[in-house]
């Protein structure tokens, strides 16, 4: 938009959005919700490995001009913390994205989104698993409730007839992705103090590098072809909106209202995504989806209640 044509109104609209936690979190949730929708829609156009590799390469290229000076300023800390940052980038960025897109080759976007909705609870419980921190009884209850919802979805509403051999491998991959990301989010607290843009740039670079050799090997085997316009659109979307824009919006909302209140909105990507999967992909919303989702949402509110009480006791620190 031209700076002299309509710019005051545009800037006013931007300021309004930038100051509204509800709009910030709703937009971030929409962008995150569309990520598995795009991944599922593009499953026949490019491989999970290709989509994951190009996602982080595009994100890195867009971010690097803004991040370079921060990376240079933080170089001494980066040299000391490179082992931890490497592990986080490999598993929490590269492998996580690949597994997520791989799961969408084998299961519906609806199932993927509903299973991802357990991530907030897993993130709250993970410190107890990894660091032996004491876990509050309400969090134990929420984790058990969430597990019940997941079981209901994965078994298609027949938990008593559980057949491990008959489970959808895509659902299991989605759950593995939830575990990896929850562990990654938990270990982020151990990262030394560096600028948040530096952290994103380094993690994107490591995630992209993790997938580079397998991707080049796949190119050597299959050959290089001119990408279709749909492929370019999918790559640009996943590389910019869920990878960069959504995180910027979410971080701004956390700065405005705190992490606990912002966390309550983390079930919105599932809500948006399920309806978009029905609308855009023609997927069917079955009764077992709705029952399992209701159980998971109930677990989320129980977990946030527990987290809110813990924050009130300890005092919340805003970034």
Topology of this protein?
Blueprint: H1 7-18, H2 21-41, H3 48-73, H4 75-106, H5 109-116, H6 119-131, H7 137-154, H8 169-187, H9 196-222, H10 229-257, H11 259-263, H12 268-281, H13 287-314
Helix pairs in contact: 2-10, 2-12, 3-4, 3-9, 3-10, 4-8, 4-9, 5-8, 5-12, 6-7, 6-8, 7-13
Structural summary, described in words:
Helix content is 79%, strand content 0%. It is built from 13 helices and no strands. It has one domain (22-314). Residues 311-319 have low confidence and may be disordered. With 319 residues, the chain is mainly alpha-helical. The protein is globular.
Termini separation comes to 32 Å
Structural class: mainly alpha
Number of helices: 13
Q: Rounded to an integer, what's the Rg over CA atoms?
A: 20 Å
Number of domains: 1
Uncertain spans: 311-319
- The 3D shape can be described as globular
Biggest sheet layout? none
User: Can you count the beta strands?
Assistant: 0
- Succession of helices and strands: HHHHHHHHHHHHH
Strand content: under 5%
């Amino acid at each position: 938009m031209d700076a002299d044509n309509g710019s005051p109104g545009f800037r006013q609209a931007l300021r309004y959005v930038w100051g509204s936690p509800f709009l910030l979190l709703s937009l971030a949730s929409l962008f995150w919700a569309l990520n598995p929708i795009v991944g599922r829609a593009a499953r026949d156009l490019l491989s999970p490995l290709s989509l994951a590799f190009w996602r982080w390469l595009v994100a890195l290229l867009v971010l690097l001009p803004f991040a370079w000076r921060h990376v240079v300023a933080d170089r001494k800390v980066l040299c000391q913390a490179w082992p931890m940052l490497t592990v986080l980038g490999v598993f929490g960025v590269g492998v996580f994205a690949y597994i997520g897109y791989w799961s969408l080759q084998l299961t519906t976007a609806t199932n993927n989104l509903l299973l991802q909705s357990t991530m907030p609870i897993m993130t709250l419980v993970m410190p107890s698993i990894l660091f032996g921190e004491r876990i509050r009884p309400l969090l134990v209850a929420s984790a058990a409730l969430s597990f019940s919802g997941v079981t209901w979805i994965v078994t298609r509403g027949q938990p008593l007839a559980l057949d491990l051999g008959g489970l959808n491998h895509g659902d299991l991959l989605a759950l593995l992705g939830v575990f990896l990301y929850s562990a990654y989010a938990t270990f982020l607290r151990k990262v030394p103090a560096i600028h948040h843009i530096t952290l994103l740039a380094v993690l994107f670079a490591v995630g992209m590098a993790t997938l580079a050799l397998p991707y080049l090997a796949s190119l050597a085997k299959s050959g290089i072809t001119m990408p279709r316009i749909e492929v370019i659109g999918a790559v640009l979307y996943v590389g910019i909106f869920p990878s960069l824009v959504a995180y910027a919006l979410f971080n701004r909302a956390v700065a405005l209202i705190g992490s606990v209140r912002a966390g309550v909105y983390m079930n919105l990507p599932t809500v948006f995504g399920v309806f978009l999967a029905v609308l855009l992909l023609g997927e069917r919303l079955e009764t077992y989806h709705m029952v399992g989702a209701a159980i998971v949402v109930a677990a989320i509110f129980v977990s946030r209640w527990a987290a809110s009480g813990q924050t009130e006791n300890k005092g919340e620190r805003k970034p």
